[in-house]
Design goal:
Blueprint: H1 5-30, H2 36-61, H3 64-90, H4 93-100, H5 103-115, H6 121-138, H7 148-169, H8 171-174, H9 178-200, H10 204-210, H11 213-240, H12 243-250, H13 253-263, H14 271-290
Length: 309
C-alpha cells in the first residue's frame, strides 16, 4: 500500500466533518422557527427514495423485530433532529456546533453509568472542563441564563448520547443490515415530522414553493451531502480504516462549525466565548482519548457508528 493511501482514505472522512460543520449554517439559511418541521420533511423526503432504492433488497430481508427496533430508534432520531434544528435557528451556528459536540463526552458517561463502573479520573476532568467551556460559551457578554437555542442543542446532545447507547445495546438491530435499518429510522422520523408539520406551521409544499434557488441549494446540501454522502462515507470508512481514526477525524466537526459560523454567518465571539469554545474542543478531544472502554461485547465505539445528521 502506497504511503499516500492513508491520506486518501482520510480525505472523505474529513470532508464529512466539514459538511457536518456547515450543517448548522445551512439550517439557518433554509429554516425559521415556524418552518423547522416542514424543512425537515423536505430534507429527509429527498433522501428516502435514493437510500431506499439502494437498500431495497436488504429491507425485504428485515425481520419484524428489526423493523420494530429500527422504528423505535427512528422515534429517538426524530427527537434529536427536532431539538438540534430548533436549537440551531435560536442560537449561532458556532454555539450549536460546539455544544452538540458534548455528546462525545456524554456518551461514555452514560456507558459507565449503564455498566456501573467508574470512569477514569482523567475522563471526569475532561467532562468538567467541557461543562465549564459551555458555560463560558453561552454566557459570553455577561452573566445571564443560556439562550433557548443553546439549551435545545444541549438537549439534542443528551438525546443523541442516549440514541447511540440504545443503538449499540438494542439486540433487535445489532445484526441487522445497517443500510436497511437506517432507512427505517429515517422513514419513521420523516413520518413524525409530516404528522407534526400541519400543527406547527406551513405545509412542506408551501415552504418548498417559497424557496428560492439559494435556499434549494442549501436544502440539497443538507440532504445529499450532510445526510446521504456522510452516511455512505462512514459505512465505507469504518471498514477501510480504524474506528478510532474515523472518530478522531469526525471529531473536528465543531471546529468546522466555528469556522463557517465566524467566516460566513458573521458570528462574533467575545473573549469568554473564545476561551469557552477552546475549552470545549480541548475537553472533547481529551475525553475521547481517556474515555472508558465499553464492557459489553455488543457495544460499539459511538463515534464509529454510522449515524446520519
Amino acid at each position: 500500500m502506497s504511503s499516500s493511501s492513508p491520506v486518501l482514505r482520510d480525505l472523505p472522512v474529513l470532508l464529512v466533518a466539514v459538511v457536518w460543520g456547515s450543517s448548522f449554517l445551512a439550517v439557518q439559511q433554509v429554516a425559521e422557527p415556524g418552518t423547522v418541521v416542514a424543512m425537515l420533511v423536505l430534507r429527509f423526503g429527498l433522501v428516502l427514495p435514493l437510500l431506499g432504492a439502494v437498500a431495497w433488497r436488504a429491507l425485504r430481508r428485515l425481520s419484524r423485530a428489526e423493523w420494530l427496533g429500527g422504528a423505535a430508534l427512528g422515534l429517538a432520531l426524530s427527537g434529536i433532529f427536532l431539538l438540534e434544528t430548533y436549537g440551531a435557528v435560536h442560537t449561532s451556528a458556532t454555539n450549536a456546533g460546539l455544544i452538540i459536540s458534548l455528546a462525545m463526552v456524554l456518551t461514555p458517561l452514560g456507558e459507565s453509568a449503564l455498566s456501573r463502573t467508574a470512569p477514569p479520573r482523567a475522563f471526569l476532568a475532561a467532562a468538567g472542563l467541557a461543562v465549564l467551556g459551555v458555560a463560558l460559551l453561552t454566557v459570553d457578554g455577561g452573566l445571564r441564563p443560556p439562550a433557548l437555542g443553546d439549551l435545545l442543542v444541549l438537549g439534542a446532545a443528551l438525546v443523541r448520547s442516549a440514541y447511540v447507547l440504545a443503538t449499540a445495546r438494542l439486540r433487535a438491530v445489532r445484526d441487522a443490515d445497517t443500510l436497511a435499518v437506517t432507512w427505517v429510522q429515517l422513514a419513521v422520523a420523516t413520518a413524525v415530522f409530516a404528522a407534526v408539520a400541519p400543527a406547527v406551521g406551513p405545509s412542506p409544499w408551501a415552504v418548498a414553493a417559497a424557496y428560492g434557488p439559494a435556499q434549494w441549494a442549501w436544502l440539497l446540501h443538507l440532504s445529499l451531502f450532510c445526510t446521504l454522502f456522510a452516511f455512505f462515507v462512514q459505512m465505507w470508512a469504518v471498514r477501510a480504516t480504524s474506528p478510532s481514526r474515523v472518530s478522531l477525524l469526525l471529531g473536528t466537526e465543531p471546529l468546522w462549525a466555528a469556522v463557517f459560523g465566524i467566516t460566513i454567518a458573521g458570528n462574533r465571539m467575545g473573549l469568554l466565548a473564545v476561551v469557552g469554545g477552546a475549552l470545549v474542543l480541548a475537553a472533547t478531544e481529551w475525553g475521547r482519548r481517556t474515555a472508558p472502554e465499553p464492557h459489553r461485547g455488543g457495544t460499539v465505539e459511538p463515534e464509529a457508528e454510522p449515524v446520519p445528521v
